[in-house]
Design a protein that fits this description.
The chain is an alpha/beta fold. The protein contains 11 helices and 12 strands. The strands form 2 sheets. Strands 2-1-3-5-6-4 form a 6-stranded mixed β-sheet, with helices on both faces. Strands 9-8-7-10-11-12 form a 6-stranded parallel β-sheet, with helices on both faces. Helix 9 links the parallel strand 11 and strand 12. Helix 1 packs across helix 10, helix 1 packs across helix 11 and helix 6 packs parallel to helix 7. The radius of gyration is 18 Å and the shape is globular.
Length: 272
Amino acid sequence: MRASVLGSPIAHSLSPALHRAAYAHLGLTDWSYDARECTSEQLAGVLGAARSDPLFGGFSLTMPLKLTALPLVDDLEPLAQRVGAVNTVVSAQGRLLGANTDVPGLVAALIEAGVTAIERPVVLGAGGSAQAAVAALAALGSPSVRVAARNPQRAQRLGDVARASGIDLTVVGWDREATGESDLIISAVPATAGDALAPWTQAWPAPAALFDLVYAPWPTALAAAAQRAGATVLGGLDLLVHQAVGQIALMTGRQIDVAVLRAAGERALASQ
């Protein structure tokens, strides 16, 4: 069986290291996994070819394909439909199913780190990763969330996700007050955008934890500011390994220990 991660650019992806380590650990010698460059314009053709491929094992989707895939799959799992983002495509009785493992991955990573009593979270950004973050916060029982958006108009879709997930959402400006009085900050923006916030947080908003969804370069300036303050800090690798557990289960029907994937990810990052 053949599986791949699709996106553009894709050469930096750690997904091949994680999935191949899982296959080796599980003894799935007939499975392979690679990284394939795929733009939004190319995705329909790639998915069409997968429908008729008897060896199609599944696709992991990364930027910019998580939203593009929504109308291109045959079926959407309820969570992917509610969040409005697909990061996994598998074959189900000859039809392509779109799923989302980012949300349970975020939840599992936060639980693993002991960050569960969340009352005043802030999400930085308004893209697809922010949509998953809002749904994850709702799943953890947070009553409300503030979203700091560089372009507030992009936050409309986040409002839809919040309403469907049962969490109150407020959009705030991308300014010095964005992270104040928070107990968890989830940065769902590129490192360069998050780094611009680091000077605001020299006096880190205790007792705020940070979940920065970037995994390279690490630490980001935002993560370094949180670490200096002694805050709990999670990074993109934490999300990547936990969401991959779900992807591997969907693709292969097998469960993998997250520790196997984390070790593989750390080795891959160290070699870059």
